[in-house]
Design brief:
The structure is a homodimer of 193-residue chains. The first copy, chain A, is an alpha/beta fold and 193 residues long. Chain A has one domain: Rossmann fold, CATH 3.40.50. In chain A, 28% of the residues lie in helices and 34% in strands. Chain A is built from five helices and eleven strands, in the order αβββαβαββββαβαββ. In chain A, strands 5-4-8-9-10-11 form a six-stranded mixed β-sheet, with helices on both faces. A two-stranded antiparallel sheet of chain A has the order 1-2. A two-stranded antiparallel sheet of chain A has the order 6-7. In chain A, a hairpin with a 4-residue loop joins strand 6 and strand 7. In chain A, helix 2 crosses helix 3. The longest helix of chain A is centred in the N-terminal third of the chain and has 14 residues. Chain A is globular. The interface between A and B is large, with 40 and 40 residues.
């Protein structure tokens, strides 16, 4: 998606070889107008597939999921990273390793908000090693819901997550796929647009 | 705001006397259509005041902030609860006590996304004791930005936060103010609409 690639080129900063900072528009400060364009693109790519629930994980996916939920005309749910004292006892639960934060999170979704009647589009801001996405797919599976597919803002195509998930037959649509960031120069996969 | 009050009446659940669960539409599952109506109401109440930045805190405020940012035509920023390895060293920082989670969080915003040129509307899902809001106000103050006001979805009017913050002269607009939940019956403040 050219709009997102242009944004990454102009505002993205490569750090320490393989960290891409896009916090001026994606995951600390948020450009809601860009999110709207991205949501419309996901709607185009997943149109007619009966999506009736968006699932993401806190925190960076929430803004994208919320705006996409308006486009799809359905509710969005975000998986939570830990169990607060007013959280349901009745939850689906999985474990997700965050390499950025260097720890393993328990991730939960209330059973009230995910069930066999749901046709789920999973959305997230980044895909690298694929741990977060596979954790969310596990929650969809536990709920007996149908996974329609996964939409990602930025995929690091030089890490293994995307290939592994596509190999399972999952419809995975990344709006920008980075194949290389060496020397700080960001190169996109041409068919990733 | 009648739409929100009706939603709280029909989907809200009172637990253990003073916990209100609204996770079917506000802070676990999210009703983006309702968020849009709420954002328009905040726009009406803060119209003409030059808001050019929305500030919230992860995670529950993010969806609201993102949709409100579209209404105000500005960017949204969410304060983060802990410092990941790819977070800026250059941040404003404050401490917020969460009674729900029973701990104190370090909360940060990158200095790149909040500064003297910003006229800030702080948004959050809940206001009870006011700790989160005062933490966010502290960040605005550290940045030398102008606080235009605060918009809250649900204020627990029987806790002290709202009164204390209004006493400081802050324009605080809560879309639903609950004055009592005793016996599980939710009563709203009439002038809170």
């Amino acid at each position: 998606m050219k709009l997102l690639e242009d944004k990454i080129r102009t505002e993205g900063v490569v750090k320490n070889g393989d960290i891409l900072k896009v916090d001026s528009f994606l995951n600390h400060q948020m450009d809601a107008g860009l999110f709207r364009a991205m949501a419309r693109e996901w709607k185009r790519r997943f149109d007619g597939l009966g999506v009736n629930k968006i699932l993401t994980i806190e925190a960076s996916g929430i803004g994208l999921a919320c705006i996409a939920a308006e486009e799809f005309g359905c509710r969005a749910v975000f998986a939570k990273k830990s169990s607060g004292s007013n959280m349901d006892a009745e939850v689906y639960s999985t474990k997700i390793t965050s390499f950025t934060k260097g720890k393993v999170f328990d991730v939960i979704v209330s059973k009230r908000f995910l069930g066999p009647e749901d046709r789920v589009l999973i959305l997230d801001d980044f895909l690298a090693n694929g741990c977060a996405l596979e954790g969310l797919m596990d929650l969809v599976n536990q709920a007996g819901a149908t996974l329609v597919g996964c939409g990602i803002a930025i995929e690091k195509g030089f890490q293994e997550g995307g290939a592994r998930i596509r190999k399972k037959g999952v419809k995975l649509e990344s709006l920008a796929v980075i194949v290389s960031m060496s020397g700080g120069e960001i190169v996109f996969r041409e068919d990733g647009t």
